[in-house]
Amino acid sequence: MKKILYVYAKGGAPLEHAFPRIAACGELHVLALMPLPTAAQEVWRRHCTSITEVHVEAGAGDAATREIVRHARCIGAAAVVTLSEFAVLAVAHAAHRLGLRGAGPAAAVRARDKRLMRETWAAAGVPVPGFRRVRSESELRTALTELSPPLLLKPAWSAGSIGQLVLHTSDDLSTAWKQVDQALGKGRQVRMSELYASGADFDWLVEEIVEGTTEGWYDRPGYADYVSVEGIVADGVYRPLCVTGRLPPIPPFNEVASTAPCVIPEPLQRRIEDASRHAVDALGLETCGTHTELKLCADGRSVLIETAARFGGVMITKEIEEVFGLDPIAMLVRELLGEQVDYPERMLVEGHGAAASLVAVPADAAGVPWRTQPVWTPRSVDWADLLSSGSAIEPVAAFDLPPGSHVPVYDPAAGAANWLGVFMLTASDSEALLKDCNAVLNGLESALGRATAGK
Q1: CA nearest 242: which of 205, 220, 269, 208?
Q2: Which part of the chain is CATH 3.40.50.20?
């Protein structure tokens, strides 16, 4: 049986979902570069042949890669894989050094550093927002005079919307710089920091906020003006799998739900497919999962937001399984092992039922912070009171705030650090799914209060 080395860092699909699918492809060995989660360990540990934990500091550079290479050689790994954004670079360098399939070191940087990504796309004619590199408040002040506000300030290496803040005038600059720095500190506290690139917290960019619209794309309200395309690059050939939709993010840009199937008409989804292909091909990736986000604009245009050399996080791969019957994680692992993988001839558009990864934060669907700080007891909530008949919701243990904790106050700049929990929500169709997602976002505060009062 072929041996697979999984490199763990925070982020990506939860282990209880990923590990059974990886272990079905070969003998699973785990190298944890940060402490493993204890959530659902009774489920995921039994799929592991071995587990080795090695502490690696953020920005460790080649030290992280050397550790992966050493361990891969020790077990005789035929493939090295990660689902974490923060370990993508280290794994790409290690796979290259080992002569194994991977994203490719140079391409992985282009898919990781948002500044280089945009520069690569601009050179290839891929539509991107106007942007500038910034490393200081003075550079940010200059950028504000060269670009058209409002602007989005973001760290170049972050994920999970951590440290993103909207700037309207020069009066926002000093406060914004401090807020983003504080948000990055929160990210470090929860180990959501780049493992390979050093000094990543000091690499920022500011970009124009593209005016998006759902008009002309969706024939119903309730969705965000951006989508993502989930796919796999197999030996340099891009294989898009499907489009996933989004609910409107909570300001400034905190994502709350990914949905499948996307209800945009097929001809327009094909246009999105072509745009994502242009963007992914420009990065020159070799073999990896991909998650490509696009802003929907007027007149059928789209602008690229970003691509990652890994699958979308939370439960997006589970959404694809539920709706389209594909197992992206297993498909990628088999590709990394050099095995035959059957891909759809074209990106899939129609599926069965509907599914969402729903993120709970202490704010409602409109971004209004909760007025109370109830005790977090999601398993005590009467979900049937919130959901449509036939719908189901399941908490994802890996993302759960410790039960019994008091819900913290919402922090607009903290991104994923605001997360209370992630839920897998399934419904009979997309209409019921959209209704249920909003019912949970708008009703969870009260439901938690009732659950606590009823004890």
Answers
A1: 269
A2: 3-100
CATH topology of domain 3-100: Rossmann fold (3.40.50)
Q: Is the dihedral of CA 310, 319, 297, 439 positive or negative?
A: negative
- The string of pLDDT tens digits covering residues 154-171 is 888 876 666 677 888 777
Q: In 261-381, which ranges are E strands?
A: 288-296, 302-308, 354-360
* H or E, element range at 442: helix 430-453
pTM comes to 0.92
What pLDDT sits at residue 137?
81
User: Is the confidence at residue 384, as pLDDT, over 80?
Assistant: yes
Give the residue among 232, 187, 216, 230 at the shortest CA–CA distance from 335.
Answer: 232
Q: Which fold has domain 130-208?
A: Dna Ligase; domain 1 (3.30.1490)
**How is the beta sheet containing 151-155 ordered, strand by strand?**
131-134, 204-208, 151-155, 165-167
Is residue 436 within 8 A of residue 386, CB to CB? The reply is: yes
| Interatomic CA distance for residues 327 and 406, integer angstroms | 36
Q: In what order do the strands lie in the sheet with 27-32?
A: 50-53, 27-32, 3-8, 79-81
| Dist CA 105 CA 96 (whole Å) | 7
> Look-up: residue for tokens 């589970």?
318
For residues 232 and 285, give the distance between their C-alpha atoms in angstroms, rounded to a whole number: 10
List pLDDT tens digits, range 29-86.
999 999 999 989 999 999 999 999 998 876 677 899 999 999 999 999 999 999 999 9
- Whether 365 and 438 have beta carbons less than 8 Å apart is answered as yes
Q: What is the architecture of the domain spanning 353-455?
A: Alpha-Beta Complex (3.90)
